[in-house]
């Protein structure tokens, strides 16, 4: 491995590995979901789908974006809530005393929206929350579209009439799919916020120093 390649991996190792994990597990979802859905179709006496056709099915689209939707909701809400709310002793919270906060800015080029100022600066100041909101809304719409198409396929196999997308949006089934994921994401955030009060992980930026008192708030 060249020095340039090694340097690139060192600088970006965290994102590279997380994305590889995501792609590997997504592939697992695709392959197993394809088998599961074809079993459902076969049991109903319908024709099965090729792997490529499965990627356009409501079953796959709904399952994928149902999960992505909850992830973007979790991160977006956490970004916003952590601006003004605190948790004493948590490494995930800003310090209770504003005087204890330090804004660390390394030497380097200033982002162009900061240099431009005005409306561009205002948008950039909230760009992380905006990005998560857009990603959540896109995932929510795609989840709805995929879930609606999947329900209508099921209804067709059962000899029932299809439902309109708005009727599906108002159904308990659609919101069950959403809420079962949303609650787990907020539970995960709550666990991270609270467990970092008492527990440590040496050298992790998500943890306080090992010798820090439990009452210390922030990293």
Describe the structure.
The chain is mainly α. It is built from eight helices and no strands. Helix 3 runs antiparallel to helix 6 and helix 3 crosses helix 8. The longest helix is centred in the N-terminal third of the chain and has 41 residues. The protein is elongated, with a radius of gyration of 23 Å. The mean pLDDT is 92.
Strand percentage lies at: under 5%
Largest β-sheet summary: none
The computed structural class is mainly alpha
Helix content: 55-70%
Overall pLDDT score: 92
| Total strands | 0
What Rg, in angstroms, do the CA atoms define?
23 Å
Poorly predicted tracts of residues: none
Q: Can you write the helix and strand succession as a string?
A: HHHHHHHH
Shape: elongated
User: Cα distance, first to last residue?
Assistant: 35 Å
Q: What is the number of helices?
A: 8
Brief summary of the model shown:
With about 220 residues, the chain is mostly helical. The chain has helices at about 5-45, 50-55, 60-85, 110-115, 120-125, 125-155, 165-170, 170-200.
Give me some keywords for this one.
elongated; 8 helices; 219 residues; mainly alpha
Could you give the topology of this structure?
Elements: H1 3-43, H2 51-54, H3 58-84, H4 112-116, H5 118-125, H6 127-157, H7 165-169, H8 172-198
Helix pairs in contact: 3-6, 3-8
